[in-house]
Each structure stands twice: as C-alpha cells, then as structure tokens.
Amino acid sequence: MPTQSFTATQPIDPPTSARRRVLEGATTLPPPPHNTAAPAPRARPATGPRAQGAATAQDGLPRWAKGFVIGGLLLAVAMPASVLLSRSMLVQEALAAESSSKAAMVCTAGDARAVDDSSIAGWLFSGSFFSCGDWETREARVQREKDQAHNNYMARERARQGLSN
Predict the structure, then answer these.
(1) Are 129 and 113 in contact (CB under 8 A)?
(2) How far separated are the first and last CA of the chain, in Å rounded?
(3) Is residue 122 in some structural domain?
(4) What's the structural domain count of the chain?
(5) Residue 145 lies in a domain
(6) Does pTM surpass 0.70?
(7) Is 28 a domain residue?
(8) Residue 35 falls inside a structural domain
(9) How confident is the prediction along the chain (165 residues), in pLDDT tens digits per residue?
(10) Containing domain of residue 81, as a range?
C-alpha cells in the first residue's frame, strides 16, 4: 500500500525507515550493511555519588564562560600595558619639550606618575603627570654636550689611528 505523505516526484520510503533515520540522526548516507562490525558503545553519563561531585573534563565550561574568562584575562593584561605605554610616552614628550626650552633650569630626567597612587583603580584610571627628578642649568647642559661631543671625536680619532698602525 503506497504512502500518501510523499509526492510522486520523491522516492517512496516506508514510514518506519524514516522514523528510524530521524531517531538516529538522519544521515544522507545509506545505512551500513549488516555484516560490518557493531559500532563502539556510547559513553553513558556517570551515575552514583562520583557523578554528583565536581564537573568532569567532558562537561567543561560553556562557550560563553570561556569567552568571558579569556576576555577578562586579555583585559587584565592590556589595560596596565596601555597605561605604562602612555606614561612612557608622557616622559619622552616632557623631556623633548624641556630639551628645546630656553629656560635657565632644564629637566634632564623624570618619570610619569599616577595622580592617585592609593589603589589599582586610581593607578589605572586617574590620569598621569610628569615629575622631574634631575635638574641642571642651561650653561651646564651646553658644556656637558660639548664635552660629550669632544670625547666622542677623540675616541673616533684614537680608533682610526689604532686601525691605521
């Protein structure tokens, strides 16, 4: 007796095999022949007192929890790195501005500090300021740069004479 659930253009399939395919996970491949080895038994969920304890390795964390943890770790590394980078740039900018200054006293070294160092949140979010550590007069700086240039010239001359001998 033909089934009425299929149109004439589709192959006729008995309802029992269709039900079996739905229950087994409907594949497009034909079922394996009967003379093949039986499939490996599926792992059953654990039962008893051990199954009610901590999650097993098969359970794992849900995908959203993994993403949350990974995002938190990335944020925990990236935020302090960006704060340190911005403070480093602040120091370089301040020293560059001081080097071209015409003032009598010039800052030669310093560091960037947080406005509020009392907590981690203050260190991360309160902003930064430059604190100069070493000062020298304009004349002393000019003389130091001249002495350094002269010493570099003499070292090059000695190296050239040592190579030509």
Answers:
(1) yes
(2) 112
(3) yes
(4) 1
(5) no
(6) no
(7) no
(8) no
(9) 555 655 556 555 555 655 566 566 555 566 556 655 555 666 666 565 555 555 555 568 888 999 999 999 999 999 888 888 888 888 888 888 877 777 788 888 888 888 877 777 877 888 888 888 888 888 888 898 999 999 999 999 999 988 765
(10) 68-137
